[in-house]
Amino acid sequence: MHFLYNIFALLLVVLAIPVFIVRLIREKGFGERIRQSCGVLPADVLQRVSNRDCIWLHAASVGEIVATSPIVKEIKREFPDNPILISVVTASGYEMAKRIITEAEGIIFFPLDLPWLALNAVKRIKPRVFLPVETELWPNFLRAVRNYNIPVMMVNGRISDKSVKRYTYLHTVLQDMLSTVSRFCMQSQVDAEYIIRLGADSSRVEITGNTKFDQTYTDVTAEEKNILARQLGVADSYPVLIAGSTHKGEEESLLRTMQAVQQKYPQGKIIIAPRDIMRVDELAAMAQGMGFATARRTQLQAAELPGDSPTVIFLDTIGELGKVYAFGDIIYVGGSLIRHGGHNVLEPAAHGKPIIVGPHMFNFKDSYALLSGRGACVTANDDRELTAQVLSILADDSVRRHMGEQSLAIIMENRGAARKSVVALKNLLNSMEKAI
Fold this sequence. Notes:
Blueprint: H1 2-26, H2 30-37, H3 43-49, E1 55-58, H4 62-78, E2 84-88, H5 91-100, E3 106-109, H6 115-125, E4 129-132, H7 139-147, E5 153-157, H8 161-167, H9 172-180, E6 183-186, H10 189-198, E7 205-207, H11 222-231, E8 240-246, H12 251-264, E9 269-274, H13 280-289, E10 294-296, H14 297-301, E11 312-314, H15 321-324, E12 330-333, H16 346-349, E13 355-357, H17 365-373, E14 377-379, H18 383-395, H19 397-413, H20 417-435
Parallel strand pairs: 1-2, 1-4, 2-3, 5-6, 6-7, 8-9, 8-12, 9-11, 10-11, 12-13, 13-14
Helix pairs in contact: 4-5, 4-20, 6-7, 7-9, 12-18
């Protein structure tokens, strides 16, 4: 089975070569990303982490980087002498890591999961421990760390319903991966049950909670909040709706809702942060076609103001959304009106905001259940309900205040997962040292 996996992985790389060539031409920085993915790692990073007992955390993209950030802070407190290496898969994850994980000695792109590339990366770096974040399991890489007797501990482990079904097709490859992981620190009881169902040894599984409750990179002072609001042109606007991590099929619904909002609140504005910022031109054209004046965050930042004061602002930067949530009156979290599975609702909750989502939150089922169960988050099943929910919340200050208070209370009550994860890491490393 492992041989078939390698054939399939190599075939995917070969088939992707034309796409890589196009992206090399069009996408700034893609060449460096490919170099690193093919094993050519930056010399300065290698100098700081190679053979220095570094702690290597692997987080695929933006969401996993958010979860990683508080763990890194706790690791630095507990293991101040160990360098920290962060690896990512996506360019957005790389930019986010550079922005919010300043404690790391190195940030790299993860090697393609081909046997010789994985083995070479592990051989050159030789970390003290490898920590995959959430469900970042790669067969060849895990084989490589096992060859060098490097312990593996999953942190902030999360298994979606979709992942459970997908992983079962890997059969012996899955069992090989799971047997390599010494400790599974899972977000919830459901995630723990899923990983055990897939074949993990139950004695290696513990529930540590969701480290996204511990995130602090979104914190803003009152002065920072005011500056950011002025830069985006919403300082004197009410209401300000913020739609985070939106996907194709959602923005039109949000713009229709904004049309209804403006009938009652002419000074209202909406900030839309699409998950794929390459779609901003397309979305701006859609908004303008519906009669809205628009602007990009980068235009406003450079004082390239359009003729009319924009009603629709597109956030076309990486890493700012968590802070922008601070001055929203209502937050919509995307990927949920369509069947994507939702996105992180804890970022707006950390600012004490009322939250609206669509019906498809299966990738964030636990945090969604927690917030909706306390009335901090409401669900809109379609366009009509989205508009109705927004107008209803805006019309009742007591409802909006209650939702925000519950959001913040839930965040405060559930903090501590990052600390529990690092305690588990310390116990794992101590037990392995005693066994030698």
